[in-house]
Amino acid sequence: MKTTGQLIERQVVIPPFALDGDLVIPENAVAVVAFAHGSGSSRRSPRNQYVARVLQDGRLATLLLDLLTRDEERIDAVTLHLRFDIALLAHRLSAAVAWLKKDADTQDMRVGLFGASTGAAAALVTAADRPDDVYAVVSRGGRPDLAGPLLARVLAPTLLIVGGNDAPVIETNQDALRLLHVPEKRLEIVPGATHLFEEPGALEKVAALARAWFKDQLPNRASR
Length: 224
Known about the structure:
alpha/beta
């Protein structure tokens, strides 16, 4: 564990799958957000790390983790199939949520999920399976359609963020928005942005939207 001022940084291992994670807890954190990265990415993704820093500036703790083990990542780099196994990814993410609810540093915090690409589907499936533990979801360039019929069971307020130049993903997110029955749901389209939000200012917009959503939906030590 490393402490910088009042910032706590811990490298953690999530049981029972031995998943590597990086937990950062800012001073007076009000909630914690677990990240589910997209296909072919990792917890080292500069995009997710940037969003995590913006959330931390808003007094939100973050858990960046890899949903595949190192051996599985080597296999997936060749076969490309595990990254699309939504049931497996959601099962791993659910284990991370369970761990957060038991860890001494985070057990009293509400949990939110930030998912990108296929990780967004895993986040929504996890929210559907753990309605008492997941209180908000944000999807960045996600594939919520891959959550299938479980979308209708999601109770957590959900924000879908899509690039304005990512036409196929816009359509799938519009369809998913209609299938979500939760009252607090919104689709935000970032003008001029493509799938990875690499255009100037695009990722900054994503991070600002995510922080505002989580800050609105994740007050500390509250119960549904």
